Amino acid sequence: INLLSNPGFESNFTSWNSSSPAGATTSIDSTVSRSWTKSAKVVFSGSDVNYYHTYKSVSVDPDVSEWYLVEGYIKTQNITSTRGVCLEWDDGTNTKMSYTLVGDNDWTYVVVVRRLDPSATQLTVRLRRLSGGGAISGTAWWDDIRIQPIPKTYSPNIQVDVYNSDSSYDRTITLEGLLGTHDWVQKRTDGTPYLSARASKDTSGNLYLMVVNKNLNNPVTATINIDGFAPLSNASVSTLNGPSIDSTNEVSNNVVITPSSIINASTSFAYSFPAHSLTAIKFGREPTDINGDGFINWLDVKMLSEQWLNLGGGLSADINGDLAVDIEDFAEFAGAWQQR
Known about the structure:
This protein has 340 residues and is mainly beta. The chain has three domains: 17-151, Galactose-binding domain-like (Jelly Rolls); 195-283, Immunoglobulin-like; 298-339, no CATH class. The chain has two helices and 19 strands. A seven-stranded mixed sheet has the order 12-11-17-16-19-14-13, with no helix packed on it.
């Protein structure tokens, strides 16, 4: 639930309060947005401005919900100050600011979660830059702002910036809230398996297995059974995790994707999944198992004959991958047939 109307400024500043103080120009930008077509834009012109001039208030009731979340997305360009831009949470008694952004940043998720003062009747979200960090210039955009009451069983979405083992940026993914990270997100875990798995195949016949280990402290060993699939002996593995369940990449790149491999993969083998991890395993298909049923037999001969002398990509009988089904593929298939 979002208590804000017009959270993405698609109706310009309707229902928002907005003005332009000395040192900053506030406007709607219809050329830059995270979603839909518009965002709120502030251009800073080089003074130590205290910017709080775009804001919106909603009615709240501490008896209904004690905790409230304020979140949104900010994009920056050439913000030159030690105090950057952020979102501010304000219940009239207490204020709290989100992580601040300086320099150049693509759309970045920011969030504030705080308990209301018992006397609070309103909660205000502000597009914010706190003065005191010296002159500021550059441009900032805000979009997709949200105020949300948090029930006792709330599980927030968590965005993770993923980096490879060589510290190069890979991607940002959104995960469901993890169990047990704070007292207000506790849920019963009785009967919940530690491992969750999904499998799929691509058009080339490769098999992909994704496994989440929800055990926060220990690795879990499981048997992987892939009967009916003829895997290559080596499988590639990518594991996403960090040194602890609350690791982040805010200061250093602690949460990374670590590549590894499985040697001598077969149709049934044991594998240990690290604690609090997401593991992706790619099993290459034995190319002479043309129909991908786990066996090299007359059904593969039939498919080879049906695709004989065909050209192009996506041909399962193109064993050597040269975009043609010909005598070279037949020779490789015959060799595998003799060894079966």
